[in-house]
Fructose transport system ATP-binding protein (Isoptericola halotolerans), 269 residues
Amino acid sequence: MTTIDDTSTAGTPAVVPDATPVLQARGLVKTFGRVVGLDGVDLDLYPGEVLAIIGDNGAGKSTLVKCLTGAETPDQGEILLDGNKVHFKRPQDARAAGIETVYQTLAVSPSLDIASNLFLGREVRRPGFLGTVLRLTDRAGMRESARRELRELGISTLQDVTVPVENLSGGQRQAVAVARAAAFGSKVVVLDEPTAALGVRESGQVLELVRTLRDKGVPVIIISHNMPHVFEIADRIHVQRLGRCAATITPQSHTMTEAVAIMTGAAQA
């Protein structure tokens, strides 16, 4: 591990891993007319880590994530994936590069079953004439793959992949969305407020799922307003304020109170 120059209010330097970042942002600038969304933001995401992004409303969290995932194109700056410059013009470009995003709205289809949701937009065709000409989907194959993916992620609350998503609880729906991202997000998974509107038990299940992703070596970015969850799950915390990165801290270097003070401008890192 190596230290960076940002020093906490307690005098403890923040720590970063000794590794090459999977995803990097350098000098990102994004404006909307006269409104500055991002003002020269840098970000590093390392292999097998959970990076939380926090900030007040209007701090630039959503704009930053949209630029990283292809929903917005930065006016200036560069994004690097595995050290190579990438230019995402749409979310499909980021998905094709291995960056999967789970938005707060989840984007699941309630009427479809769990397996169909996992393969939504990536349906597998049956082999031979039935798939190439008649374009029939391989339901049995997708269901077996869905069971295997859920099992590998340790999701025990979703035993029957033929159950329609509309019959699931909020936490289970979130698990389906995260499992879909994990199944296809080979490089990075981005979660937007993954525990919002969930109870204590279901939030705990989602956080455990995030830990499983990290243990599998998949780096995760979490955007959250829930400070206890951030400090429970994050390895490092990127603090956005007024379109800039105010600090990059860790749960070991700063307390929740200090993090909120940096976020609101009451204190500096």
Q: What stands out?
A: Confidence is low (pLDDT under 50) at residues 1-15. The chain is about 30% helix and 25% strand.
